[in-house]
């Protein structure tokens, strides 16, 4: 494994911790600021929206500097946002801190995906991307549960100060291990935006929004669901998040390996199974053992879609992948924002803490339908004489991603 992938994974670990740890300490934050659980859910939605808008904006700005320098600048922004969150005197200030930290998220993973894919042979690109995302999944096995435990024992502010420290480690790792390759060849705003002429890029991002949104619909309100419905104590939330993180870790590695062999069949299987599991979660949430098993499966199936979806975007936008890659990270978080908002809405409407699972099943089921449409369009464009989905003649096989 190239050491640069380890550096990217270190940055991903810090980012993953801050993204998900808020869910474990959501009740404590809500109580501290005197707001309701659905209102506190805006800390998830606000973060996701920051990723959505920050990813393309900062990526476009980053075409003027080398990818290594941009990754370092992004980690600095991440550190500043988490310090602001930790020291926030009011809910609005903490929300602002979450947004500041989130601005670095999408561009880091988007640029990092291109860097990771460029470090390995063409047939191992999805595996390289999954190794970078391994830092994100490891955060859910170690960082998030530990942060949740610390937040419940010593206060959530301590958690976010420690997350800022993780950002410092990630910054040092990028500085030391990622090679300085100079500004990307041919990088300019016009060429990067040209990738969005391909309808398959839009379909892939729509699958990302809806498929991963299905996961977030369930996981955003996992703490009240497990304590109020399944009957777990508050302290058990930490270990339940370990199970979810372990599922994500396994799903990410499995998805990375299988996506290099059979990308679309993997998406069909993972999205179909995720839809079914989310439907079952409404019932299994009432039993401690079944709830824990289902939560693990949600993590596994949900993250098994991440490497193939990211690789599909890179393949479809191979001539100018950086902006499209970052936009797809934004799409993951648009799904997060949509799901967190819809989940809070159905809870506030009185449908109970299990109702977000129905929302998640609807979202992931729609993603499955879109994946079938994308495969159908692929088959059409490969037939002799057919017109490509971009509106022109059938394109040649995607070129390898440039470093």
Automatic annotation (TrEMBL):
Entry keyword annotation includes Cell membrane: yes
Membrane topology recorded in Swiss-Prot or TrEMBL: Multi-pass membrane protein
Keywords for this protein: Cell membrane, Membrane, Transmembrane, Transmembrane helix
Major facilitator superfamily (MFS) profile domain segment(s): 4-382
First and last residue of the signal peptide: none
Subcellular location: Cell membrane
Regions crossing the membrane: 42-61, 73-96, 102-121, 128-146, 158-178, 199-223, 229-250, 262-283, 289-309, 330-352, 358-377
PANTHER family given in the database record: CHLORAMPHENICOL EFFLUX PUMP RV0191, PURINE EFFLUX PUMP PBUE
Annotated protein name in UniProt: MFS transporter
Source lineage: Bacteria, Bacillati, Actinomycetota, Actinomycetes, Kitasatosporales
């Amino acid at each position: 494994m190239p050491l640069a992938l380890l550096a990217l994974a270190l940055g991903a670990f810090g980012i993953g911790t801050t993204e998900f740890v808020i869910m474990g300490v959501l009740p404590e934050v809500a109580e501290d600021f005197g707001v309701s659980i659905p209102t506190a859910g805006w800390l998830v939605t606000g973060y996701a929206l920051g990723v959505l808008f920050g990813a393309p904006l900062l990526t476009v700005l980053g075409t003027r500097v080398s990818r290594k320098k941009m990754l370092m600048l992004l980690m600095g922004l991440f550190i500043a946002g988490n310090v602001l969150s930790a020291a926030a005197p009011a809910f609005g200030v903490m929300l602002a801190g979450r947004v500041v930290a989130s601005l670095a998220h999408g561009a880091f993973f988007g640029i990092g995906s291109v860097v990771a894919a460029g470090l390995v042979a063409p047939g191992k690109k999805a595996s390289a991307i999954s190794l970078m995302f391994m830092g994100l999944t490891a955060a859910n096995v170690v960082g998030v549960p530990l942060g949740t435990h610390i937040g419940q024992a010593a206060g959530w502010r301590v958690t976010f100060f420690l997350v800022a420290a993780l950002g410092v480690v990630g910054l040092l790792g990028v500085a030391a291990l990622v090679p300085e390759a100079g500004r990307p060849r041919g990088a300019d705003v016009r060429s990067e935006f040209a990738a969005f002429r391909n309808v398959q890029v839009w379909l892939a991002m729509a699958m990302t929004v809806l498929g991963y949104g299905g996961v977030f619909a369930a996981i955003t309100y996992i703490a009240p669901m497990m304590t109020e419905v399944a009957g777990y104590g508050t302290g058990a939330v930490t270990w339940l998040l370990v199970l979810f993180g372990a599922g994500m870790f396994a799903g990410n590695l499995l998805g990375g390996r299988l996506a290099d062999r059979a990308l679309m069949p993997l998406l069909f299987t993972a999205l179909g199974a995720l839809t079914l599991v989310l439907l079952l979660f409404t019932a299994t949430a009432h039993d401690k053992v079944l709830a824990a098993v289902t939560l693990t499966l949600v993590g596994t199936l949900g993250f098994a879609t991440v490497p193939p979806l990211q690789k599909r975007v890179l393949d479809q936008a191979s001539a100018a992948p950086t902006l499209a890659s970052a936009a797809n990270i934004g799409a993951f978080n648009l799904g997060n924002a949509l799901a967190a908002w819809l989940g809070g809405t159905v809870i506030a409407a009185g449908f109970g803490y299990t109702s977000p699972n129905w929302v998640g099943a609807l979202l992931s089921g729609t993603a499955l339908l879109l994946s079938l449409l994308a495969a159908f369009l692929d088959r059409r464009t490969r037939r002799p004489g057919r017109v490509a989905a971009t509106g022109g003649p059938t394109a040649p096989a995607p070129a390898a991603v440039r470093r």
